[in-house]
């Protein structure tokens, strides 16, 4: 009864139980669990080795050795492939197998007892864990390689604020030995000005369980402090309970320096713009003003808000607003520079003339406009005054010319009458006193001089008008001969010899009337101031200067004169070098005027008793 | 009475249907609240001038600036005016399919826009010209247009 019970228990045990008898290891008792493993083909009394492949060869061998050696054996996680069923791949099953020699009746080994406990699930779990740990190691390696390759310093800090890990870049950066006490040294490497702030911010972030993002300076291996960006995020094991902060330090020194330089540059430019006593402003690409300098506020008495993006138009003199607005819209549409001359209202309501100029700058930050309004009020008013004065002078000058011309013309007739009357008087009246004849001669001389003066005055005005005559290519010789023809009487009177030499420069581009006037005056002067002691000789010669410019020399062997220190005084009107010789004194003044108005100058050299040489530099 | 001018960018391009719906809705709302003005739209660029009583316009602009359909709202002008310059509220844009739009009330083709009304100050008229230039570009700005305004 007890054996029955025992058999029943064994039969239903979840582990496989089988007894093998005799050296052939024949099946004795095989429980249900064991049948499930070995299959249905197992019959009592059959040798375990008989159905080939039922038990793997190595297990079979071990069984035989246990039988012979009489020593139990346990195999852990032994794999027994289950036969494939219905096209399914064979499933690997794992068993803990215990082999126990059986001594029937206390004699020698008579059989084996085999227990097989199915550990497939455990084994599979173990294998999965193994694979996972390999994968974890692989990921860990990858993470480490990445962490140590990126330029950033990476770190992990625990909840107490102690460093758990810092990547090797930290050691490269700081130059600290690997044995350094990180927690002690790190705060000391932070720039003294940043230290307290950094420690406080990191502490606060840890206390509130949040990440951080701040910048500070850390001392590099060369002693230089470099700006770093520190960013870290907490890792939570349970909600609201961060245990680690993982983060990275990025060097942002250059960017920071650059943006600092930009900020400073901008501040300096703004300061510069605010210091200039001119209205300076900038506008967006759309043409809306977004900055007015300080002086604009001072000048207009309005704030940037009051002026607004287009309010500057309101500052202009009302009649100029529309035109300025039109030009500005035009400039914005085309990108062409803006320029206008406008009156701008000052804070006291007074309008001042300004030149408004604006240009478009196109760079990577997109187009913008830069403008300035320059106060030109004083210049503008001065120019207006000068223009008025100039106009007045020109008019006066014209009036004067007309007056002189009219006067000389109008005086001519009375003079003719006077001469006629005087001649008539001389013819009809009888003078007895010898002094009378002298007086007659003096009256005659005075009349002749008055006539000459009137003629020369008229000529001055006429020549003045001729100054503006167009220039043409003139043959010097033919003009000179024409002039000499007019002076033939004087030449013959004094028996003068006149030499003309135009070999070097035969033609001259000049106003014809002007050239004639110049030659006439110079030649008649030379003849007039001839020295009675010798045969008068007048030499007219055209030459080229070293610079290749034409000159004309008129040389005489006449009386000569004492030149004043300032030779230009010679050419002032009504200046007469030889008061005993008749003349109005306007001749040389005329020559001088013509020559200088056409861009040249007149030179004179003279020795008393030897002669005078005039040189005309036609063009300077 | 005040007027407000602003510019902004549409978050995404507006289709003909969007624009037509906007036109209808705004015209009704604005007519009811006695708000007049003009809206320019082209390729995501928006500019609008609105005029009306401050107690209407200020909350309206507040609502406009918080509207999710556009961003970068830039207020250019917000100031007191003596008189209204627009008789109604209208919209100017280039529909992809212009047929049918031309008959729509309150719709204007950009190149058919008239010059800013002469009741505006020259500075404000120039501002309207500039926003129009910014939205539609120089092509739709007839050269003689500005001249005729201020002449």
UniProtKB/TrEMBL annotation, chain A:
Domain Histidine kinase: 406-620
Keywords from the named record: Kinase, Phosphoprotein, Transferase
PAC domain mapped to chain residues: 212-264
Leading EC class: transferase
Catalytic activity: ATP + protein L-histidine = ADP + protein N-phospho-L-histidine
PAS domain boundaries: 265-307
Gene Ontology MF terms in the entry: kinase activity
Protein name: histidine kinase
UniProt lineage: Bacteria, Pseudomonadati, Bacteroidota, Cytophagia, Cytophagales
From TrEMBL, chain B:
Residue ranges annotated for the BLUF domain, each copy included: 1-92
Superkingdom, taxonomy of origin: Bacteria
Any Pfam family the entry gives: BLUF
Record protein name field: BLUF domain-containing protein
């Amino acid at each position: 009864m007890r054996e029955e019970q025992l058999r029943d228990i064994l039969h239903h045990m979840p582990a496989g139980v089988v007894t093998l008898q005799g050296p052939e290891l024949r099946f004795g008792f095989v429980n249900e669990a064991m049948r499930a493993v070995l299959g249905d083909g197992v019959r009592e009394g059959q040798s375990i080795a008989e159905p080939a492949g039922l038990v793997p060869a190595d297990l079979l061998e071990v069984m035989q050795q246990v039988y012979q050696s009489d020593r139990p054996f346990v195999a852990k996680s032994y794999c027994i492939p289950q036969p494939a069923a219905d096209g399914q791949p064979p499933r690997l099953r794992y068993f803990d197998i215990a082999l126990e020699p059986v001594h029937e009746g206390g004699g020698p080994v008579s059989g084996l007892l085999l227990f097989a406990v199915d550990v497939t699930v455990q084994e599979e779990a173990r294998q999965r864990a193994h694979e996972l740990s390999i994968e974890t190691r692989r990921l860990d390696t990858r993470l480490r390689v990445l962490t140590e390759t990126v330029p950033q310093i990476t770190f992990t800090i625990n909840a107490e604020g102690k460093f758990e890990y810092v990547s090797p870049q930290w050691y490269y950066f700081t130059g600290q030995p690997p044995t350094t006490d990180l927690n002690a040294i790190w705060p000391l490497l932070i720039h003294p000005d940043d230290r307290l702030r950094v420690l406080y911010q990191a502490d606060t972030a840890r206390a509130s369980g949040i990440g951080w993002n701040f910048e500070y300076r850390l001392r590099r291996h060369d002693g230089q402090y470099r700006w770093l960006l520190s960013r870290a995020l907490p890792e939570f094991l349970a909600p609201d309970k961060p245990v680690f902060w993982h983060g990275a330090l990025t060097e942002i020194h250059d960017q920071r320096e650059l943006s600092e330089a930009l900020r400073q540059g901008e501040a300096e430019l703004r300061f510069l713009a605010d210091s200039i006593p001119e209205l300076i402003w900038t506008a967006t690409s759309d043409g809306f003003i977004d900055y007015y300098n300080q002086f604009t506020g001072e000048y207009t008495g309005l704030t940037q808000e009051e002026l607004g993006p287009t309010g500057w138009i309101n500052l202009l003199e009302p009649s100029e607003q529309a035109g300025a607005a039109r030009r500005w819209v035009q400039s914005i549409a085309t990108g062409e520079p803006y320029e206008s001359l406008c009156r701008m209202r000052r804070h006291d309501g007074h309008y001042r003339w300004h030149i408004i100029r604006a240009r478009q700058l196109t760079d990577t930050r997109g187009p913008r406009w830069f403008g300035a309004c320059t106060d030109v009020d004083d210049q503008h008013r001065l120019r207006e005054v000068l223009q008025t004065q100039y106009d007045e002078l020109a008019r006066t000058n014209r009036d004067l010319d007309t007056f002189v011309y009219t006067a000389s013309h109008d005086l001519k007739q009375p003079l003719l009458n006077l001469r006629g009357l005087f001649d008539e008087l001389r013819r009809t009246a009888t003078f007895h006193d010898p002094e009378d004849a002298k007086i007659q001669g003096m009256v005659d001389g005075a009349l002749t001089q008055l006539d000459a003066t009137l003629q020369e005055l008229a000529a001055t005005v006429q020549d003045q008008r001729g100054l503006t005559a167009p220039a043409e290519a003139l043959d010097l010789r033919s003009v000179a001969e024409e002039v000499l023809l007019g002076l033939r009487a004087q030449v013959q009177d004094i028996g003068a010899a006149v030499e003309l030499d135009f070999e070097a420069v035969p033609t001259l581009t000049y106003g014809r009337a002007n050239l004639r006037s110049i030659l006439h005056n110079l030649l008649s002067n030379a003849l007039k101031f001839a020295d009675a002691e010798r045969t008068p000789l007048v030499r007219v010669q055209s030459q080229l200067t070293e610079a290749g410019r034409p000159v004309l020399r008129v040389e005489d062997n006449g009386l000569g004169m004492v030149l004043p220190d300032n030779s230009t005084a010679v050419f002032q009107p009504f200046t007469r070098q030889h008061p005993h010789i008749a003349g109005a004194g306007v001749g040389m003044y005329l020559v001088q005027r013509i020559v200088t108005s056409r861009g040249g100058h007149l030179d004179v050299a003279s020795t008393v008793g030897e002669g005078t040489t005039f040189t005309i530099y036609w063009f300077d | 009475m005040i007027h407000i001018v602003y510019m902004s960018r549409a978050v995404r391009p507006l289709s003909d249907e969007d624009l037509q719906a906007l036109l209808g809705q705004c015209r009704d709302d604005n007519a009811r609240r006695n708000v007049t003005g003009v809206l320019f739209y082209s390729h995501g660029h928006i500019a609008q001038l609105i005029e009306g009583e401050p107690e209407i316009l200020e909350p309206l602009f507040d609502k406009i600036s918080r509207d999710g359909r556009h961003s970068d709202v830039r207020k250019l002008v917000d100031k007191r005016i003596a008189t209204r310059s627009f008789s109604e509220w209208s919209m100017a844009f280039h529909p992809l399919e212009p047929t049918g739009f031309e008959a729509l009330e309150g719709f204007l083709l950009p190149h058919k826009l008239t010059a800013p009304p002469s009741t505006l100050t020259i500075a404000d008229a120039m501002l309207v010209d500039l926003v129009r230039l910014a939205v539609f570009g120089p092509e739709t700005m007839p050269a003689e247009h500005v001249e005729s305004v201020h002449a």
